[in-house]
Amino acid sequence: MEIPVIDFSELNGENRSKMMGLLHEACEKWGFFQVENHGIDKSLMEKVKQLVNFHYEENLEESFYASAIAKRLNNPGNTSDIDWESSYFIWHRPTSNISEIPNLPQEFCKWMDEYITQLIKLAEKISELISENLGLEKDHIKEVFKGDRGPSVGTKVAKYPKCPQPELVRGLREHTDAGGIILLLQDDQVPGLEFLKDGKWVEIPPSKNNRIFINTGDQLEVLSNGRYKSALHRVMADKNGSRLSIATFYNPAGDAIISPAPKLLYPSNYSFQDYLKLYATTKFLDKEPRFESMKKMANGHHGLHV
Questions:
Q1: What local confidence, expressed as pLDDT, does residue 78 receive?
Q2: Range 207-210, long-range pairs (CB < 8 A, 24+ positions)
Q3: Of 23, 65, 148, 215, which alpha carbon lies 20 to 30 A from 82's?
Q4: HSE (CB half, 13 Å, CA atoms) of 119?
Q5: What is the C-alpha separation between 71 and 83, in angstroms, rounded?
């Protein structure tokens, strides 16, 4: 299966409607896609990957193989409740914790901050395009996400070490993501990421040409009233390679109130009798304006928020 690729360089030209249609289909039928020509500095992306790999090799690799998780592979028994990963989480917005993470060099913090600043702009742009495709105001998702202090933005930095018995364990067990828009800078050599589509696991190849892999989380499924589903995914353990994953989460603020966008909801709390009255005069017209009229009527009668 060919994973959808959204070319951001096409969004300002004659192919814009084609790209917007492809993005809509990717969100509706896949729950994930790739972005190229996204405007993020490629040398910055490479620098971040190099520094993450170096930090892992110097500070985390040895302790991972000595950990309780690694030792469980040597003992017969159930290993379905563990993840074969070495990871840590960096908060960026509204406040940063990067200075509190052990053994991160100053250079790492500098490059990561620069990368995240550019990545947030990309996340906001994607949120605008998704809002537009849903027929909402372009700032709808941004406004919902921001709460009192702006969106929550954090990065899970993970390595999936070489695994001597990959048949016994997952790199990361099956799950959907809780938040909004997930932007993944991943390994360009080692595979392992898989997404479920139409009941089949699709292997996501390593990212070439500095593409960024995007998937949508549970909150976008709610905001879109179920039109854009969050997709189940997992990471398979690998015997031959150690996979890199730098996943940044553009999420709602903790105090953000989430609900389906009112514009996307069907009318509710009306009497069938009222509907029939309207139907009598609009039977041979499109139903959508009729539904909109019922929303307004219910709002007037019951004080509902629409």
A1: 81
A2: 207/34, 209/36, 210/36, 210/40, 210/42, 210/45
A3: 215
A4: 29
A5: 13
**Domains of the chain and CATH, by start:** 5-301 (2.60.120.330)
pTM of the model: 0.92
Contacts 24+ apart (CB under 8 A), 64-71: 64/159, 64/161, 65/161
pLDDT attached to residue 300: 62
Q: Give the pLDDT means over successive 10-residue stretches in the chain (306 positions).
A: 93 95 98 97 96 97 95 83 96 96 94 98 98 97 95 98 95 97 96 97 93 98 96 96 97 96 91 93 92 81 41
Determine the Cα–Cα distance for residues 154 and 161; give it in Å rounded to an integer: 22
- The DSSP code sequence of the chain is ----EEEGGGTTSTTHHHHHHHHHHIIIIISEEEEES----HHHHHHHHHHHHHHHHHHTHHHHHTSHHHHHTTSSS--TT-B--EEEEEEEESS--GGGSTT--HHHHHHHHHHHHHHHHHHHHHHHHHHHHTTS-TTHHHHHHHTTT--EEEEEEEEE---S-GGG-EEEEEE--SSSEEEEEE-SS---EEEEETTEEEE-PPPPTT-EEEEE-HHHHHHTTTSSPPPPEEEE--SS--EEEEEEEEE--TT------GGGSPP-S--HHHHHHHHHHHTTS-HHHHHHHHHHHHHHHH----
CA distance 231 to 27: 10
